[in-house]
Amino acid sequence: MAEAARAKVTDGEVAAAEALTSVRHGEGPRVGFLGDPGCGKTEAMRRMIAAYLRASSGVVLVADDKSAWRQQFEGQTFKDPADLESRIQADPSCLDQRQRVIVFRGDPSRGARGGLDLESVARFQAKLAAKRRPSVCIYDEIDRATVNGMWQQNPSDIAWSFGKGREDGMGAFWGLQQTQSAPSEPFNNSTHMFVFRCVGNPVMLLKRRGYCEGGVDAVIPRLPGDELPKAQRGYFVLLRRGRPWDGLVYRFGAPRVTQKPPAQSAPPTAGALPAM
Questions:
Q1: In which region does residue 21 sit, left (phi positive, over 0), alpha (psi from -120 to 50) or beta (all else)?
Q2: What is the number of other CB atoms lying within 10 angstroms of the CB of residue 98?
Q3: Which of 43, 57, 195, 244 is most exposed, with minimal Cβ within 10 Å?
Q4: Nearest CA-CA partner of 60 in 46, 43, 79, 40
Q5: Interior angle at CA 88, CA 83 and CA 92, nearest 5
Q6: Per-residue 3-state assignment (H helix, E strand, C coil) for the chain
């Protein structure tokens, strides 16, 4: 595995640019982040937020309630959308219009997860869309809004945003660890997946839902992960539903590699990263 970590990989910014193609078309991006804990998903989301801000004039709405004691994303911080709206009503100057990242942290007094309702974030995003303001929601663990593979709220505002909001500039960067717990909408309506090391059910589910063309299902379990120091993690593959894998492994901060393997090259064998 140490040899795999030293393999030549492509800069994750190349993957970010590809995943934000819809922004250049005036549409909202839908990008999933899947993998085992500790493999670099949250850091990749931070990098994607920065890339989105460079590519779009839109707003970033972050549901950052994984930990009540540690904020994972930087931005203007509020308890929830209702808190934001009431504070703006009381003092419109409380919101810095130059800062386009809004972080919802919930209320730590309500427990470890802060009691943040993810559906309320989706409803707030719909209000921005009604004002013709593009935005992207960051759901670091979208399975918090689900139970047994179904949305807890029915009808779900999150599901609606995935199914109907793309042309209105409503995007989502979403992650989860238990792939079997997620409803179909995020998988069926996302254009790209950043997939870090995972094994078993997650890989089989990705394959069933059309993301593993080209032999990548043999590569995903062999990606470097939490056996590395934290600063050295972050290896992933970029998958597109119904399209062949590009044959590349990515990591933010890696040297850029622009030449892709020839289309006729054989898929990598299990236990090895693709040749770069």
A1: alpha
A2: 5
A3: 57
A4: 46
A5: 160
A6: CHHHHCCCCEEHHHHHHHHCHHHHCCCCCEEEEECCCCCCHHHHHHHHHHHHHHHCCCEEEEECCCCCCCCCCCCEEECCHHHHHHHHHHCHHHCCCCCCEEEECCCHHHCCCCCCCHHHHHHHHHHHHHCCCCEEEEECCHHHHEECCEECCCCCHHHHHHHHCHHHCEEEEEEECCHHHCCHHHHHHCCEEEECCCCCHHHHHHHHCCCCCCCHHHCHHHCCCCCCCHHHCCCEEEEECCCCCCCCCEECCCCCCCCCCCCCCCCCCCCCCCCC
What is the CATH number assigned to the segment(s) 2-251? Answer: 3.40.50.300
- Each residue of 97-136: pLDDT tens digit? 889 999 999 886 666 556 799 999 999 999 999 999 999 9
- Structure tokens belonging to residue 2: 């140490």
Task: Report how far residue 195's alpha carbon sits from residue 273's, in angstroms, rounded to the nearest whole number.
Answer: 14
Tokens 């898929």 belong to 267
Residue type, 218: A
Summarize pLDDT for 30-62 with one digit per residue, the tens.
999 999 999 999 999 999 999 999 999 999 999
